[in-house]
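Something for you to look into today, if you have time. What I am after is a single protein written out in full by you. I want to see for myself how the chain folds. Could you add the entry underneath, on a fresh line?
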Amino acid sequence: MSDEEEDYMSDAILKGCEDVKPGLYKSSKEAQRRIQQAKQEENRKKRQKPLKVIEAEKRDEGLNKSLDSTNKGFALLQKMGYKPGDGIGKSGEGRREPVGIELKVNRGGLGQEAERRKRAKELEVFRHQQSLKRKKLEQEAQHNFRENKMSEQKQRSILKYLKQSQQVCEQLDENKDIREPLKLYYWPLELRPVPAAEETEEDADVAEGEDEPEINEQLGEVTEYLRTTHLYCIWCGYSFDGELYSQAIFIE
């Protein structure tokens, strides 16, 4: 071995060698790079558009593109004198654009979509009519409710004044030594005279079943009786003498 050749066991040879540890060791940078590439490939696959989307984009792109001389039908029209932008026909008043394409994406038969839209329209009209009827019924119910409440309140008010008039009428009749009312409903029910014992049950039934006018009519009659017979106004709560009564103006 000559002096020019370096000893392979020397330190100079060992310093020039790469320090590699035994086993299946990979550097951290290499591992990170492979992981990053795998993620990028996975994201690229995820970003890839579905076939239906690609077909729809290509179809829209072709439909939106105007016809030119490369189209055989368009070229024949140009040979017959057609100019782009003009309408077809002898006077040029015909269609300017080709008939649009409506893609069928479901499995329904021809005309089914039109029938479905027709039924949907009829259903919408029917629901609108039902909604109007329901609103009308609600308004009528509210109006009837208010009318009933007002009527009930009015009836209670009339009945209250009737009882007061009957009590006053009974007292004034008693002051004049009148033992029986001119009509039974001129006095309160509890103060009306009891039928005589010799009256038959049939007569009592007839007296009890005698038709009485409505309470508002009863109030009017009792009020008029008090004014004419006793010169008393239930609404004023005042008893007039003959001269004042002749000059008084009563408001019904």
